Every structure is written in C-alpha cells, then in structure tokens.
C-alpha cells in the first residue's frame, strides 16, 4: 500500500509537473503572443503612421494641385470673362460705330441727295433760262430778219424812188470791135429839175464823146455818141456827172 501510495504520489507529482509545464507553456505562448501582438501593433502603428504621413503628404499635394488647378481654372475663367467683356465692349463699340457710320452715311446720303436735287434744280433753271434765251434770241433774230427785210424793202423803195428821181442812162455797157466804131447811149432826167451833164473818159486818146457837156430838162432825154478808134481790146470807163441847175 505504501508503494502504491508512493507511486500515486509520484504520478500526481508528474501530473502536477506536466500540468505546470503545460501551464508555463501556455503562459509563455500567451506572453509570446502578447509580445508578438505588441510588436505587431507597434510595427503596424509605425506602418500606419508612415502610411498616414504619406497619405497626408499625398492629400496635401493633391490639395495643392487641386488648389492650383482651381486657381488656374479661376484665372482662366476670369480671363475668359475679361475676354468676353472685351469682346462685348468691342462689339458694342463696333455696333455704335456702325450705327454712327450708318447715321453719318444717312446724313451724307441725305446731303448728297439734297445737293443733287439742288444741282438738278439749278440745271433745270439753267436749261429753262437757256431755252428762254434761245427763244428770245430766235425772236430777236426773227425780228432782225424782219427788220432787215423791211430795210431791204425800204431800200428797194428808195432805190426805185431815187431811180425815178435820178438821171439814168441806157445801156449800161458799150461794146466795140477791134476796128473801133460809134456807139450811142441815152440819158434820161428823172428828177424834177433841169440837169447839167458832163461825160468823162478814162482814155481820151482812144475815145471821143459828143456832146461832152449838155443840159437836160426834167423828164427829157439826151442821146450821147461815143466814138472809139481802132486798137487793142481793153476795158475803159465812162463817167456821167450831173448836177441840178436853174
């Protein structure tokens, strides 16, 4: 029984030892796990902190880039807005200039039309004046022609009257042959007074006149003979001079 008791004790001790060793192992394992967990946590913490810093850097860089992009976009928008405003201002100025130009063109066109109308009126007035002048000139010419005709008629009448009152002779020309000869012409006193006659010749050596002097009563006639000697043919003149006498 004592041996069995010893054996049991030994077994129990062995069990206790094994159990203690098991406990120790478990505790060691748990401590190892805890240590590992701590180390892992610390490493993860370090890793997380590094990752966080990198992410923060990335986020800050992204933010900066976004801010830059947004600033650039704002600047571009502002530039576009300014360009649009400038374009609008230019368009407005162009429209105003066009309106002004159209107004000026309209005014210039109106002025030109007014000037053209005035010129046309002036031309029409000038044409009318010219027509009037032409008509007046034609009338004056017609009057002058009428006056000339009247003057001619009066002159003819005067000539006829003078011829009636003058001393006339007939024929007007005397013709001779180369051998010479005698030709007569007749004078007539158409005046109401007694006339004294005288005959003059351009060549007294070639011609003889009979009578050279004579008197003719009013309404009477006188025959005068002209004798030419033989000679070369030529043109000579006889002049009949008369004057009234008592």
Automatic annotation (TrEMBL):
Domain MSP: 166-246
UniProt-listed Pfam families: Motile_Sperm (PF00635)
InterPro entries for this protein: Ig-like_fold, MSP_dom, PapD-like_sf, Sperm-specific_class_P
Superkingdom field: Eukaryota
Biased composition regions of type Basic and acidic residues, renumbered to the chain: 1-19, 27-170
Residue segments, region Disordered: 1-170
Role summary: Central component in molecular interactions underlying sperm crawling. Forms an extensive filament system that extends from sperm villipoda, along the leading edge of the pseudopod.
Identification of the protein by name: Major sperm protein
Organism: Brugia malayi (Filarial nematode worm)
């Amino acid at each position: 029984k004592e041996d069995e008791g010893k054996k049991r004790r030994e077994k129990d001790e062995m069990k206790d030892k094994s159990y203690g060793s098991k406990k120790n192992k478990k505790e060691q394992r748990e401590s190892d796990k805890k240590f590992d967990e701590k180390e892992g946590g610390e490493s993860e913490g370090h890793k997380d902190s590094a990752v966080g810093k990198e992410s923060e850097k990335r986020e800050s860089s992204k933010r900066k880039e976004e801010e830059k992009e947004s600033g650039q976009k704002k600047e571009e928008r502002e530039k576009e807005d300014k360009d649009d405003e400038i374009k609008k201002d230019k368009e407005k100025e162009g429209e105003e200039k066009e309106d002004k130009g159209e107004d000026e063109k309209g005014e210039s066109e109106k002025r030109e039309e007014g000037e053209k109308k005035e010129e046309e009126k002036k031309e029409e007035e000038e044409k009318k004046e010219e027509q009037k002048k032409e008509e007046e000139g034609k009338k004056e010419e017609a009057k002058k022609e009428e006056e000339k005709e009247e003057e001619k008629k009066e002159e003819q009448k005067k000539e006829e009257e003078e011829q009636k009152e003058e001393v006339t002779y007939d024929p007007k020309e005397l013709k001779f042959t180369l051998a010479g000869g005698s030709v007569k012409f007749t004078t007539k006193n158409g005046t109401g007074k007694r006339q004294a006659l005288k005959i003059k010749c351009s060549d007294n050596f070639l011609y003889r006149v009979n009578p050279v002097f004579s008197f003719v009563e009013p309404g009477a006639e006188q025959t005068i003979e002209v004798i030419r000697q033989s000679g070369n043919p030529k043109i000579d003149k006889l002049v009949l001079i008369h004057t009234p006498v008592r």
